[in-house]
Structures are given as C-alpha cells and as structure tokens.
C-alpha cells in the first residue's frame, strides 16, 4: 500500500553511449541538483570500462533523472516518439533559462513560443539526444 503523501511517478533511467558522466553533470548544473556517480569498478562490474558510470543520478532538485553508461551488449538511448516534460514545474523565467541551457549544442525543434491555447512551450533535443518539452500556462 502506498501512503497518500508519497509521490509516485516514473523516473527516466537513460543508458548513455559512454558519456554518462558528462551528461549527468550537464543536467545537474542546469537544474541545480546534487549529482551522484558510481563507476563500474566501484560496483565490481567487468562488463565495461572500470571508469564508466554504472549508476548515477540527480537528487535534491526539481528534476529526477538517473543514468549509466552502456555495458557490453546494451543499446544506448535513442529518443523517438517520447519527450521529457518540464511543464509548469518552475517559474516561467526559470523554464526559459532551462530551455536555453538545454539548447546549447543541441537542436531546437520548436522555440519557446506563445500558443493559441494560452500556453507557452517549446521543444529541444539536447546535445546528448534527450528530447525536452518545456512550457507553462500563460
């Protein structure tokens, strides 16, 4: 049984193609989250490079995201038909800032813009291949 005060929601766990440390550090800096990283050697894993990330994530911040480097035989993330949403999770100024930071070395699919349905939103694929939908109600 789940407590009524407990927030249950899926959290993305991304398998990166050898750049998990860089990606998770990038996201922790944008969102102001604390970062934790554990290497394959720390977990006594031999199915990848010793300094590869076996498990990492963002904590104590507005975004919950976990990730690791791929192990031998695993496929890395390829986002199609899915977006990570940041809809109304912060003040509009903060959301604009996050959108701009996620756009660095990424691809803006749709700029942040006012929509006919009285909302502002936009889409960006960041430099690590994650697609983000960022927006808020006007």
UniProtKB/TrEMBL annotation:
Boundaries of every Glyoxalase/fosfomycin resistance/dioxygenase domain copy: 13-131
Organism: Lactococcus allomyrinae
Protein name (record): VOC family protein
PANTHER family: PHNB-LIKE DOMAIN-CONTAINING PROTEIN, PROTEIN YJDN-RELATED
């Amino acid at each position: 049984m789940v407590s009524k005060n407990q927030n249950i929601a899926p959290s993305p766990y991304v398998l990166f193609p050898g750049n998990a440390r860089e990606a998770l550090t990038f996201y922790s800096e944008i969102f102001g989250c604390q970062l934790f990283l554990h290497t394959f050697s720390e977990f006594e894993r031999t199915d990848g490079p010793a300094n590869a990330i076996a498990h990492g994530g963002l904590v104590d911040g507005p975004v919950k995201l976990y990730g690791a480097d791929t192990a031998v035989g695993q496929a890395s993330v390829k986002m199609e038909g899915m977006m990570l949403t940041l809809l109304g999770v912060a003040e509009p100024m903060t959301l604009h800032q996050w959108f701009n930071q996620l756009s660095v070395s990424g691809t803006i699919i749709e700029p942040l813009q006012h929509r006919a349905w009285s909302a502002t939103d936009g889409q960006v694929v960041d430099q690590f291949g994650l697609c983000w939908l960022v927006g808020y109600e006007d």
